[in-house]
Amino acid sequence: MFNPNPEAYLPHRRPFLLLDRIVALQPGETATAAISVTGGTRHFPDVLLIEAMAQLGGIAAGHEEGEGGFLAAIDRATFIGSASAGDLLEVTVRVIKSFGRLHLLEGEVSVEGRVLATAGFTLGMGRI
Question: Entry's InterPro entries (predicted)?
Answer without folding.
Answer: FabA_FabZ, HotDog_dom_sf
